[in-house]
Every structure is written in C-alpha cells, then in structure tokens.
Amino acid sequence: MKQLSMMEHKKVLVLGLAKSGVAAAELLHKLGAFVTVNDAKPFEENVEAQKLLQQGITVICGHHPGNLLDEGFELVIKNPGIPYNNIIVEDAIKRGIPVWTEVELAYLISEAPFIGITGSNGKTTTTTLLYEILQQGGLKPLIAGNIGTVACTVAESAEADQVIVTELSSFQLMGIETFKPKIAIWTNLYEAHIDYHGTMKEYGEAKFNITRNQDSSDYLIYNADQEVVASYAENSNAKLIPFTTKAVSKEGISADEDMIYWKGAPILKRDTIALPGAHNLENVLAAVAAAILMDCPKEKMASVLSSFAGVRHRTQFVREWRKRKVYNDSKATNTLATRSALAAFNQPIVLLAGGLDRGHSFEELRPVMANVHATVVFGQTAERFADFAKSCGVESIVYATDIQEAVPKAAQLSNEGDVILLSPACASWDQYPNFETRGDLFIQSVMELDEYKD
Predict the structure, then answer these.
(1) Residue among 397, 389, 392, 396 nearest 425 (CA)
(2) C-alpha span between 67 and 89 (Å, rounded)
(3) pLDDT tens per residue across span 157-200
(4) Does 120 appear as a known binding residue?
(5) pLDDT for 25-72, tens place per residue?
(6) The domain made up of 5-100 is a member of CATH 3.30.1540.10
(7) Residue 403: HSE in the Cβ half-sphere, 13 Å Cα cutoff
(8) Is 2 annotated as a binding residue?
(9) Kind of pairing, strands 99-100 and 163-167?
(10) Residue range(s) of every CATH 3.90.190.20 domain in the chain
C-alpha cells in the first residue's frame, strides 16, 4: 500500500457508513487523518459506528447536522448511495471541498493497476468472468468494487504484480478525481438511475468518468453497437478497443455465429461459450478483449468460457425440476435487463415479474414476450404488469403476494420443456431490502419444489 502523506493530519468527513464508509474510515485513520464519521442511523443501533468509536474515530450519528462542515473539513468521502442534493454534500461543493467515493482513495493507495468495468447492464457478469479468466491465466487478479468487496480494502493488500478487477457504478464514478484504470470497459448505456442523476446526460457523463482520466497508455473497451457509447468513446484519450456482435471487424473484438475474432482473426469457437443469450455474448467479448490485453493464454480463456455458467442472480441456472429449467435473474431490476433475459431463451417461458413501481413502461419487453405463455406477478407493479402481459397475449396470468407464493404457482402453470424464469423488470425495495434477498428466497423456494404436488 502506498502511504499518502497528503492524508496525515487532514480533517476528513466520512458521510454514510455501510461497508464502503467503514472501510474508508479505518483506512484514513491508519493513514494519519483526523476522521469524523456521520451516519443517519442512531448510535445505539449502529454497530459499525460503535466499533469505529472504539478505534478512536469520532462518530456523529442519528442525523446530518446542517453546520457540520463548519468544523473545517478538507475532504468528504461519501457513501455512493447518498445523492448530491444531500444538504452536507451540497454544502461541501459550495465550499469547494472535494467530495470523493472510496474508489478514489483505493486508486491513490494501490500498488496494483486497475481494470474498471461499468455499464447499465452486464458489468457484474463481465467483471466476474474476467476475474475467472485472469485467475486461470495465472495473473493473480483481485476483485473489488460494486460487486461486493470494498475497493480500498482490496487495494490495501494489492501488490504491484497484481491487477484489481473492479465493478464500478455511476454513483461511485461521480466521486473520482484522478482515478485512471489501465483498462476500462463500458458495456452499454441505457436509461437508469434518473431519480439519482436527474437526466440521461448526467448519467452518461458519470459513466464517462471511467475513461475521463485515461491517456494513450491506457485502453477503453466499449460497445460499438451502441451509438451513444461509441460517441462517448470518441472523446476518450485511451486506445480504443471496440466490441461488436453485428459483423466481423478488423478493429477490436467481434463475433459471428461460429467464431470470436480479434482484429479480424479467429481466436475462439462460439460453441465453447456456456453463457446463454446475446447480451452475454457482449459481456464475453468485453472480458476476452481485456484478457488479451493482459496477455492471458488463449487456452485458459477457452477453459473458463466453457464452464462459466453465470453469476448469482443474473440469469443464474438454479436447477432442473421435472424437466423444467429454472433460472434466477433477480438482478433484472429494469426492463432492459429482463428483455435480455427473455431473448436468451427459445423455449416456452413462465415468467415471474413485478416489484417496486417507479412508473416506468414495460413496452420495451413486448418484442420478446412471444415465448411467455404464463406469468406470475407480484409487488407494487403486479396490476400493471398483468395488464401488460394480457395485452401481449399471455395465456395465463396469476397474482402472488410474494416470491415464496409465486414459485409454486409458476410451477403449477409450467409444462415439461418450459423455462421458469424470475426476471422481475423492477427493483425489489417494495418488499425486499435488495435484489439478492429476493433472489435467495426464490432459490430457496425452488429447492423446496420437490415437496410440491401437481
């Protein structure tokens, strides 16, 4: 870990705890900063704050005092989920105090270079697949970021001959200043998180931060099939590596029905890829391109591609039950993700869908609803999704109160040869704290189907 003399005796406010806030506070304390943590959860209920206080870190809990920055803070590290219209964040910006997320801190202390992966969809699959490929290739990768392990914690122990493969959300990327990945991957850009960013333009600008500081010694792997991403890529100073599934290309990486091509030359057979769906082919191309740039052996790539069946909660194969294949795609919190999941299958589908009602339309799903012969709807959007499914000609539509009730109902509607697919097209927060909880309950209910009688 690099020692940052710039942090010694610096007054730093960590705003919001959770995993990233705790990690940032502890790291800054080690680096000699004077750290204060501010979190909305009351102190008596705040285990993380209690532990930090025992380490000698100042904690202010239960509210966000409007005059907090009068204490003379020189830097704010904020939880990515805290919006920029938060009273303290707005005040910091007004006063000219830098506002970072812990990703910037991770970059500054890391001995190892970064590979940064962002996009509206596919970033977790791409991150995990690339990590597995590099690991098989003997390149000693580490994995971090939005995928679960806090980046600055990983960066503390990273060595110069390693590489940190990092999933990055737009929320995290808004809080960087000098962060510069050696390789950046931008999978796609679809309308999302407008409630946080305000406009699609601001969302796109946040994503562009992944390459904003790159130069000609770095690489940007990007989706050339998406005009909006390609237009952003033109403004990058990095070496551009496009990926496309539309035609064989002599630039970057591409694919046809039989092969994957690197700069027009065939390198891998398509039939080695275990992941289903056109959207996952894009993720494969992005990951393979990065692996090639890291000099990973081709046979190691092929080995991983033939066995990698997906990431938990992302078109994850759960089991085969009575000649039906069951998939968990709880991460599909928007229509674009559900559209990709539906397009991945040619079999008849029983779809489980619904969740938090943000008022968005389901019309983007209409072109891929042909194989859906039955649906089980739940959550705040149950009524709206039922109306939409009916307009698409879905034969059977059933309501459920929650996931546990939805699974046996889906089983009852299914036939041999069907796919039973949880792909909600909505966030989980109306009923569950996160999509992982929703997916875990789905898996649990699916594993209990043996007790179900037709």
Answers:
(1) 389
(2) 12
(3) 999 999 999 999 999 999 999 999 999 999 999 887 787 888 99
(4) yes
(5) 999 999 999 999 999 999 999 999 999 999 999 999 998 898 999 999
(6) no
(7) 26
(8) no
(9) unpaired
(10) 316-449
Output the pTM of the full model: 0.81
* Run of H or E residues at 345: none
Sign (positive or negative) of CA dihedral 160, 162, 163, 164: negative
Helix (H, G, I), strand (E, B) or coil at 132: helix
pLDDT at 451: 63
| 122 marked ligand binding residue | yes
Confirm or deny that 123 is annotated as ligand binding: yes
Do the annotations mark residue 125 as ligand-binding? yes
Q: Is 166 flagged in the annotation as binding? A: no
Q: Return the H-helix or E-strand segment holding 96.
A: none
Q: Which fold has domain 106-307?
A: UDP-N-acetylmuramoyl-L-alanine:D-glutamate ligase (3.40.1190)
Two tokens, residue 296: 């990973």
pLDDT in tens, 93-117: 999 999 999 999 999 999 999 999 9
The pairing of beta strand 253-255 with beta strand 259-262: antiparallel
46 appears as a binding residue in the annotation: no
pLDDT of residue 414: 97
User: Collapsing DSSP states into helix, strand and coil, what is residue 154?
Assistant: helix
> Residue type at 265?
A
Angle between the N-to-C axes of helices 298-307 and 278-293, in degrees from 0 to 180, rounded to the nearest 10: 150
